[in-house]
Target: Probable 2-(5''-triphosphoribosyl)-3'-dephosphocoenzyme-A synthase
Amino acid sequence: MRALARRTSSPAERLAELAVSALVDEAELSPKPALVDRRGQGAHSDLTLGLMLTSAQALQPCFQAMAEAAERGLPAAELRCLIGQLGRDGEAAMLQVTGGVNTHRGAIWALGLLVTAAVHERPTSAQALCLAAGRLASLPDPDAPQAAPSHGQRVAQRYGVGGARAEAAAGFPAIHQRGLPQLRASRQASAGEQNARLDALLAIMTALDDTCVLHRAGPAALTTMQQGARAVLQAGGSASLAGRRQLLTLDRQLLAANASPGGAADLLAATLLVDRLEPRLPGDL
Ligand SMILES: CC(C)(COP(=O)(O)OP(=O)(O)OC[C@H]1O[C@@H](n2cnc3c(N)ncnc32)[C@H](O[C@H]2O[C@H](COP(=O)(O)OP(=O)(O)OP(=O)(O)O)[C@@H](O)[C@H]2O)[C@@H]1O)[C@@H](O)C(=O)NCCC(=O)NCCS
Ligand SMILES: Nc1ncnc2[nH]cnc12
Model:
């Protein structure tokens, strides 16, 4: 049955399914500090786990369309325009199923670029994939509508940080320098898969300028997030008793500040996708 399903689905469909499953695994991972998980809504009043899962499933056609666009072998500048529009269509689909709630804006951006780059550039390693996605992100998007500055743009300017655009343009260092090495190191240390994923999230949080945190709670909360994540890992990670205590302390601190690391959560989903893609690169997508 499984073999039949594999034969009848296209590479673009399979890639999109991998992206959706990474979003589902991120949403269900618990306990994540101040984020939506199996325990509850974290710092969000308008998000629930059910909404995150509905949103993830609704994005399958968006990721598939991006992979199919990449299969056409267009010049990179033309492909960038095309996926810009597909990304905006994906955001519209997300807002429609969530009743206007922003569940996955940053995830559409990061996972969309990665799915597209995996097909378009046929990279052979996780790092090459992240850098290829970064090159696409750095190209101009001439059809982007002139809109009021986003939350990310406003805090990026106010606090002099880069946010989601700069993270992508730099080739996603949060994924290939922090999330992925930590995920694999924690697995290697027999932390268990859920703890390894939590550790990967924390490794991303140690250094990310998460504009979601900055917008909701300001720079002091960003420092709390980065230092708190470091403290968990230094105490032995999520699998250790001391690390787990630090993790719950960080959860309380971020909840008290109403600070949700939504950007880090998106980058964890992107890390899980890259982890699953790497063994299939470049041809077995
Ligand atoms: C390039 C875009 C991502 C737009 O980026 P920009 O910074 O201009 O806009 P924002 O609207 O602020 O969205 C950025 C989202 O990215 C996540 N994020 C934050 N920091 C980082 C970081 N350092 N690195 C990577 N990613 C980061 C984060 O997303 C998560 O948070 C969202 C929930 O936040 P919340 O506060 O609840 O909701 P808000 O609506 O913001 O506030 P309230 O009104 O509720 O108070 C959730 O979505 C998570 O995903 C940031 O929110 C990109 O969107 C873009 O320009 N796209 C155009 C299409 C395109 O070109 N696509 C290319 C192909 S994919
Ligand atoms: N689990 C989560 N909770 C809150 N915001 C998010 N953005 C992406 N994943 C999220």
In short: The pocket of adenine (ligand 2) is lined by residues 26-27, 35-36, 42, 44, 47, 52, 107, 260, 262, 265-266 (CB under 6 Å). The chain has one domain: 11-141+151-280. The first helix runs from residue 2 to 8.
